[in-house]
């Protein structure tokens, strides 16, 4: 039993802050945009398939249109040829948005330290969570999604998200 | 010393290849590559040489033809004789800067259009990074293509141009198809790849022979172990050693299991593209069981690195047979369940039959191998024509299609999975006891108790880790039947512990080069399904 409206109407009403209600809804209905390029993309299929079942975390609505998604999962190696594409797709996503770098290649270039591989996607777009592994196990991906859900609790609908990031493609 | 079968002068190379094709029936051009001898220890005629690898009509014989190029680095293109030479030559131009005269479209293929230099030349440093700022429009390829098909400028303006990829759900990876549509019919298609080019071949030149095994995992990541086997088999043949019977049997068992997983992924994804999500759930639970088995055995689900030069990382664990049996049962159940949904399904038949047809002749000319070729009715399976690892003693059938359409490719994959199960069961029955690694201190790492227990073991470990396995000087091509077809490795060794050059012949690279020709004239929605049915794996064709 609370105070205010709840004291009068009982269990039929809940009072809360608007931010909290929005964040609650948002964090349990993440729509991922899977930027799957390589081996990690195949492992992401396992995350979504029957056994590990992404829908337990409310994130099973995989969108391939960036405009309908709020969580980008970069699953796989990003080459210099791919980098402008990744940047363009990230820019098309609406705020608030989060990015997970899945696997060693997306996080740091992995063991491809060579002429063609971007040494971590955080040189192009801001990254919120990194997942270690080559490729990571599905459980690690679920863990990162839970961490993003926790982060999204601090958002506010009034304040703009602070953007200080500048990658090598932002000129 | 391993040498190419023929060395010819550059001015007669084209005529030689024509003669080989017409007189000696070497109809399948497998691969084209170049070698840069700048840092090679012994002196050779000139810096650059070109190598062409062909296979004959009976599929039993391969021949490699080599030519040393003069200063101008120019040679006649053979793309008018072999369709597969088109992309083969483009790649060689991109990576080495060799110019092919009269090539229809000599431009970069793996590296981006702003790239300067040729990365596989020996004077190009591996860590010289070159960022790209913008994606190519591809109109430089599309406009001439449409003009050659008889479209006037006004008609070209009326066509709708769309990009399928490089980030598109139907591409299952990173392929970009740029299509010109009239209504929903594809009038012209241009394929662009290289979005997952990760420098496999350059990395090979900077790591020793054992360190390359993890890189091979990431070629066709749906069936990593088959790549491990293909690579290790090539190096073992160069070293002239035969691995133990037990290791051979285990390679067969795990390799065939990988083939099953690969076909599961391909067919499940194909059905998702057709709109049948249920089949995906049905058959993927079997795949997850197989991954559990592999992670128990090798420590990794996807990228296993299970083979070593001279054997395997470790033996089968206790209770493996029961686990394997369980996996095979659920695969069989999965196949039956999925087939019960689609086999007599009218919608499925309408969407797949007589669509995306590949004719025999075109498939051979384009260098298509594996299931895609067998679905067109060509009886070519390296496990039968050039048997290795006791494959000639197993009782299994080569599955052939009759039409070469999507339906045939789909059904051939399911039937091949059943045949793989047969092979695995026979191999498990006959699995011999014994060592999994050969006894050869200069090739196989010593046991851990020796490394920590005596100086000889420690020295042995040190030498092998730092210097690598010394492979005799020479150049050698060997192939194995991977999930997508003939996976070949062309290795040039200078006698040291690091390969001078490794060229992978990825089966789906040549299949993809034929894709645009296959879908032109089809509907857009059919192109999506055709793409899924041919199983293009980005890690493999982009390397």
Which characteristics define this entry?
heterodimer; A: 171 residues; alpha/beta; Rossmann fold; four-stranded parallel β-sheet; 6 helices; 4 strands; globular; B: 543 residues; alpha+beta; Beta Polymerase, domain 2; Cytochrome-c3 Hydrogenase, chain B; 2 domains; four-stranded mixed β-sheet
Describe the structure.
The complex is a heterodimer of chains A (about 170) and B (about 550). By secondary structure, chain A is α/β, with parallel strands linked by helices. Chain A has one domain: Rossmann fold. Chain A contains six helices and four strands; from the N terminus they run ααβαβαβαβα. Chain A has a four-stranded parallel β-sheet with strand order 1-2-3-4. In chain A, α4 links the parallel β2 and β3. The termini of chain A are far apart. The model of chain A has no long low-confidence stretch (mean pLDDT about 85). Chain B is α+β, with helices and mostly antiparallel strands and about 550 residues long. Chain B has two domains: about 100 residues, NADH:ubiquinone oxidoreductase Nqo5 subunit (Beta Polymerase, domain 2), CATH 3.30.460; about 300 residues, Cytochrome-c3 Hydrogenase, chain B, CATH 1.10.645. Helices cover about 45% and strands about 15% of the residues of chain B. Chain B has 20 helices and 14 strands. In chain B, the strands form five sheets. Chain B has a four-stranded mixed β-sheet. A three-stranded antiparallel β-sheet of chain B has the order 7-8-9. Chain B has a three-stranded antiparallel β-sheet with strand order 12-13-14. In chain B, α8 runs antiparallel to α15, α8 packs antiparallel against α19 and α10 packs antiparallel against α15. Chain B is globular, with a radius of gyration of 23 Å. The two termini of chain B are about 30 Å apart. Classes of the chains: A alpha/beta (about 170), B alpha+beta (about 550). At the A-B interface, α3 and α4 of A face α9 of B.
